[in-house]
């Protein structure tokens, strides 16, 4: 657990001695040290591009005027540890060409130990095609020798990007190994990396960890809901927790996420097991992790862009049969009893994280309940839609004096048209309430929050509440006739790298940095440029009959891209392609979408990771 500057600063001038010392100060002042964060790690660009006459690495005198040892001493004075970076190649990954460790392993390792370094991240750039095991073994041996001469152990982080399946061999060399390419501050990137790391649970254990890369929490490319999912997933995967945001600028919400002691305890549990996937159908993930005290952490993770009911049971998570269980909500910090059901209606891109245990005191906790919401998440200005809220008692004890409410933004009309109260709900019973919801006539297109709340009491009189926040989109249907997708406003757009682009390929960084859409040598003026995994959703309001496009891997990616395209009308897949590569010409995709309220354009990575997966929806158009 610790900090690395790269995700927030890259190689910019703000990465310097003052920043590193400031982060160490914040670890102490903000309680992050007490929460378990130890390492303050320097990434690329800390050195000069050339070694000195003796072949030694030279710290950049502008960034680090007092040298690395002085910074290390300062970090150590705070009761913390310090890490550093280099590459298992001739140069590091930055284009400035900083010196790598290949051929200099003994000298560099000794230099790091002499400076007081506690952690080494060893990257994979400019490796000259030399076998990965050979390169990473050489630095392991050098670190071991340096430790023997200085008495300073150095954690060895193997950043090989998962290219040679390091989970199968790197445990002999280091303490953690990257299982994926680099993360970026986007939902698509985080999701893709989590999916690549989740199947590798069998290779993790105490002192040998799968590393799905550093945290992006707080960097601004995702919502707080998505960042909580990011932190929850990394924790249930027993992943290293390396903060990647500039804590000097972090919000209170970012500190609340990063400092959640109960979630951190799941990550740092001494049993050292990575969570395993119980189920994942339809983007509804259940992941369970055995903990040292015999309890189970259970993550209910919603990959989709709409609320989903996600459920398992205590026995399904690995616990023995019992009359009832304690259900601890690790984000709400509340205890409940459950008869065995472990479920929640999880908001779009959200995660509910529970700790479930066979607790003899279960009856002292109020019954767990699940709040659900069924009905349209899409409407139009001035339209009235019906929504049903459902409160279910999951507990072994009844929920009593139950009441529910539904609230929305100012100006929205919300009216209950069935009962909102119940005297008692026994185990498994439901209170279903129908509501009429009307958006104001002048409501602008966009996302609006609807909040479902419930109040109830346990048999002993303890008050309890439940709350679910959902999103409803006010949208405008496409005009009659044929409309290019790039001329319409989408409801949402998710992308693996960079933003979805209109009429250009995706450039992977800022908006507008792409190139002309080109597939198989043919250039297209209209369309969408995406990077897998990607999902672009349009509102069609039941008024469109067909969608069509020419699809393929953009020519700019050489021979590396592999993607597959899907068209979904509401919840039904209505068209798809095989996995396409750069060798394939543009493929015509035509889909019947009659009656659908929304259409999702999905691009997957072909099952082999997201490297170079630039997909083009060329000439994409709706007929309405």
Automatic annotation (TrEMBL):
InterPro entries in UniProt: A-galactase_NEW3, Aldolase_TIM, Galactose-bd-like_sf, GH, Glyco_hyd_98_carb-bd, Glyco_hydro_27, Glyco_hydro_27/36_CS, Glyco_hydro_b
Keywords, in A-Z order: Disulfide bond, Glycosidase, Hydrolase, Signal
MF terms (GO), sorted A to Z: alpha-galactosidase activity
Domain Glycosyl hydrolase family 98 putative carbohydrate-binding module span(s) in chain numbering: 479-624
Any one of the GO BP annotations: carbohydrate catabolic process
Residues spanning the signal sequence: none
EC number assigned by the record: 3.2.1.22
Pfam families recorded: Melibiase_2, Melibiase_C, NPCBM, NPCBM_assoc
Catalytic activity: Hydrolysis of terminal, non-reducing alpha-D-galactose residues in alpha-D-galactosides, including galactose oligosaccharides, galactomannans and galactolipids
Enzyme class, UniProt record, top EC level: hydrolase
Alphabetical list of SMART domains matching this protein: NPCBM
Domain of life per record: Bacteria
PANTHER family: ALPHA-GALACTOSIDASE MEL1 (PTHR11452:SF75), ALPHA-GALACTOSIDASE/ALPHA-N-ACETYLGALACTOSAMINIDASE (PTHR11452)
Family, as annotated: Belongs to the glycosyl hydrolase 27 family.
Protein name as it appears in the record: Alpha-galactosidase
Organism: Streptomyces malaysiensis
């Amino acid at each position: 657990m610790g900090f690395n500057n790269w995700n927030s600063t890259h190689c910019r001038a703000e990465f310097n001695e003052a920043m590193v010392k400031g982060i160490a100060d914040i670890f102490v002042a903000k309680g992050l040290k007490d929460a378990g964060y130890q390492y303050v790690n320097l990434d690329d660009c800390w050195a000069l591009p050339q070694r000195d006459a003796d072949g030694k690495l030279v710290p950049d005198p502008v960034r680090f005027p007092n040298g690395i040892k002085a910074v290390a001493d300062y970090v150590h004075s705070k009761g913390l540890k310090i890490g550093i970076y280099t590459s298992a190649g001739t140069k590091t990954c930055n284009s400035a060409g900083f010196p790598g460790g290949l051929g200099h392993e003994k000298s560099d390792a000794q230099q790091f130990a002499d400076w007081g370094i506690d952690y080494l991240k060893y990257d994979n750039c400019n490796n000259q095609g030399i076998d990965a095991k050979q390169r990473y073994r050489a630095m392991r041996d050098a670190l071991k020798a340096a430790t023997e001469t200085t008495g300073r152990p150095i954690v060895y982080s193997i950043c090989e990007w998962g290219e040679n399946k390091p989970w199968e061999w790197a445990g002999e060399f280091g303490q953690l190994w990257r299982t994926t390419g680099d993360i970026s501050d986007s939902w698509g990137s985080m999701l893709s990396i989590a999916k690549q790391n989740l199947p590798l649970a069998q290779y993790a254990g105490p002192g040998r960890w799968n590393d799905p890369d550093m945290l992006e929490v707080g960097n601004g490319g995702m919502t707080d809901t998505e960042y909580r999912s990011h932190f929850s997933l990394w924790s249930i995967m027993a992943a290293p927790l390396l903060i990647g945001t500039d804590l000097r600028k972090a919000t209170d919400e970012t500190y609340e996420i990063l400092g959640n002691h109960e979630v951190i305890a799941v990550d740092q549990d001494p049993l050292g097991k990575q969570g395993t996937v119980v189920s994942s159908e339809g983007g509804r993930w259940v992941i369970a992790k055995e903990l040292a005290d015999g309890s189970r952490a259970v993550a209910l993770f919603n990959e989709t862009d709409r609320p989903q009911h996600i459920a398992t049971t205590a026995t399904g998570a690995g616990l023995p049969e019992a009359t009832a269980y304690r259900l601890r909500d690790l984000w709400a910090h509340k205890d409940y009893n459950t008869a065995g059901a472990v479920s929640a209606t999880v908001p779009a891109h959200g995660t509910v994280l529970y700790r479930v245990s066979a607790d003899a005191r279960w009856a002292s906790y109020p019954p767990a309940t699940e709040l659900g919401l069924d009905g349209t998440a899409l409407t139009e200005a001035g339209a009235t839609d019906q929504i049903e809220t459902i409160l279910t008692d999951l507990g072994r004890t009844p929920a009593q004096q139950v009441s529910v409410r539904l609230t929305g933004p100012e100006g929205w009309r919300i009216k209950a048209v069935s009962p909102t109260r119940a005297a008692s709900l026994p185990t498994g019973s439901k209170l279903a309430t129908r509501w009429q919801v009307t958006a104001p006539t002048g409501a602008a297109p966009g996302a609006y929050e609807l909040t479902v709340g419930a109040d109830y009491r346990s048999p002993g009189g303890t008050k309890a509440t439940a709350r679910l926040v959902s999103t409803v989109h006010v949208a405008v249907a496409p005009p009659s006739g044929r409309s290019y997708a790039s001329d319409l406003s989408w409801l949402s757009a998710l992308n693996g790298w960079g933003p979805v682009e209109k009429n250009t390929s995706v450039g992977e960084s800022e908006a507008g940095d792409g190139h002309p859409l080109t597939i198989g040598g043919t250039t297209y003026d209209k369309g969408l440029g995406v990077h897998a995994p990607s999902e672009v959703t349009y509102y069609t309001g039941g008024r469109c009959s067909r969608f069509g496009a020419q699809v393929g891997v953009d020519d700019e990616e050489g021979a590396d891209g592999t993607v597959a395209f899907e068209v979904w009308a509401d919840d039904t897949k209505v068209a798809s392609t095989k996995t396409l590569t750069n060798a394939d010409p543009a493929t015509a995709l035509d889909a019947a979408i009659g009656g659908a309220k929304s259409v999702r354009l999905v691009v997957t990575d072909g099952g082999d990771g997201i490297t170079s997966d630039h997909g083009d929806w060329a000439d994409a158009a709706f007929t309405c």
